[in-house]
Amino acid sequence: MAYRWQYENASGSAVPAPEVPAATAGFEGRDEAEGWLGENWAALLAGGVDQVTLLDGGVAVYGPMSLHPPQP
Question: What is the extent of the structural domain holding 46?
């Protein structure tokens, strides 16, 4: 199955994918999806995404995971 990110606001409601390259793409593997997120999380946050959930097909692998930096 293909991995993809589900984008969510702070209350957990799904939001459309922001205008970030490959934001709507599916990924062959979990490592590829996580690598892409590691490179693009700041752009997603700036585009209005507060948290993400990783999906494998339609099944949640993990999440929601906040994109906001930890609070001191």
Answer: 3-66
In a domain, 12, yes or no: yes
Radius of gyration of the chain from Cα atoms?
A: 11
Confidence grade of residue 23 (pLDDT, cut at 50, 70, 90): confident
* 20 domain residue, yes or no: yes
46, 7 Cβ separation under 8 angstroms: no
Does residue 71 sit within a domain?
Answer: no
Q: Provide the residue type at 31 as one letter.
A: D
State the DSSP code for 68: S
- What's the whole-model pTM score? 0.89
